Amino acid sequence: MKKSHLVAAGAAVSAAAAASVLGAAYGIYRFWFYHAAQPEDISAEELSKTLPYGDQLKQDAEALAAAAYEPVQITADDGTLLAARYYHHADGAPVAIIFHGYKGFARRDGMGGYTLCKQLGYNVLLPDQRSHGASGGHTITMGVKERYDCRAWAYWAYKHFGPDTPLFLMGVSMGASTVLLASGLDLPRSVKGIIADCGYTSPHDICRRVLAQTGHHLPVGPIYTVGRLGTLLFGHFDPEDADCRQAVAKTRIPILFLHGEADDFVPCEMSRENYDACAGRKKLVTIPGAGHAVAYYVDIPAYRKAVTDFLQECLQISETNQK
């Protein structure tokens, strides 16, 4: 075979290989990170069938579904439309901003936090994360861009309710990592505390863990590299641009870490790592027997006490610092 023919054959093979890699990169992006906004409605009846503590879920879901709210919209730093529901319970009360998880729903993932905050007389804002619910966008970035959306909501609340209204950032699963990542940003001074329920350490870590669990014995390293190429090319974000441990290592805001000890999706050890890295006031509470994102319903008294004590302590610290 002539040299020119060999070169042409080699180029064809290279082009085919590149096309295969790009196709795989797009496939991974499309499956894991592409998520066009979808209705977040899930019936209380459906919820009651999913878990052994479904009756309490159903009761809370019905109460939240019946609650009056004000729809709110803002624009993210990158121009994406963001939507939320605001639930008013008392004039001048603290405001809890609660972020849901990956492919989750604000009114599902935020139910435990909403129920607790309503009992305390707090007002509640339930944002739809980008590419979820009524918010715009079509790519889940695992907290890389969502952290800036969190900051945008905090500043909206700061301006809307005034600088003297205490704000608390809360999140479950990806929402927990969102608020942890936001803790390293320039948040308004009215943010008095952060509560992170079963958050992961970084998008890199959780992506590799999920690949190891679902990759059918395929090599995690190469698959992750191809997937990262997909997020860069098609999702316009890099999963290695954010790390919760680095964020909490420089925050001034008190943080409560919560995690179910039986969580086999985001392991409890990830919250321990985040807790160990946190340089400010912090507390870690783990719930025995609780799987992923259900710690509240597994042990409501323990969860309620941990959250209530933390919120009260944050408010006391704030009042002391203002004297």
Descriptive account of the structure:
The chain is of the alpha/beta class and about 325 residues long. The chain folds into two domains: about 1-30 and about 210-235, no CATH class; about 40-200 and about 240-320, Alpha/Beta hydrolase fold, catalytic domain (Rossmann fold), CATH 3.40.50. The protein has 13 helices and eight strands. An eight-stranded mixed beta sheet has the order 1-2-4-3-5-6-7-8, sandwiched between helices. Strand 5 (about 165-170), helix 7 (about 175-180) and strand 6 (about 190-195) form a beta-alpha-beta unit. Helix 3 packs across helix 5 and helix 8 packs across helix 9 (about 220-235). The relative contact order is 0.12.
